[in-house]
Design goal:
- With 116 residues, the chain is mainly alpha-helical.
- Helix content is 62%, strand content 0%.
- The longest helix has 45 residues.
- The chain is elongated, with a radius of gyration of 38 Å.
């Protein structure tokens, strides 16, 4: 009698375990659940990509600053950080109506049909 009760209880427990396992798997395979899972994985992948891109951008910025300092030392720019005076055009036509007095550079109209 004890053997029958043991095997009956074991069978019931196995049936309950199998039923719950199958029901969980069926719930995971519904369209809503699949869409939610895919969305969550896409968000996680986006976060991973963003973190790597930010790290890459910071590395590029750091290396760029180092390289600029190296080039500045090689060219002697870092010794005198002042900028040179602005250039003037070699030919200034003060009679030109487009020339603005006091301006370093001549100003031009952007109307492409003006001279035609």
């Amino acid at each position: 009698m004890f053997r029958r009760t043991f095997w009956f209880t074991t069978g019931v427990a196995a049936g309950v375990w199998a039923t719950t396992k199958v029901n969980r798997k069926l719930k995971q395979l519904t369209p809503e659940s699949l869409a939610k899972t895919a969305g969550n994985k896409a968000i996680e992948a986006g976060h991973r990509i963003k973190d790597r891109a930010v790290g890459f951008a910071l590395d590029v910025r750091d290396n760029m600053a180092v390289r600029e300092a190296e080039l500045g030392d090689a060219l002697g720019i870092n010794e005198n950080p002042e900028l040179p005076a602005p250039r003037r055009h070699a030919i200034e036509n003060r009679n030109n109506p487009k020339y603005v007095e006091g301006s370093t550079y001549p100003t031009y109209s952007y109307n492409r049909n003006e001279d035609h």
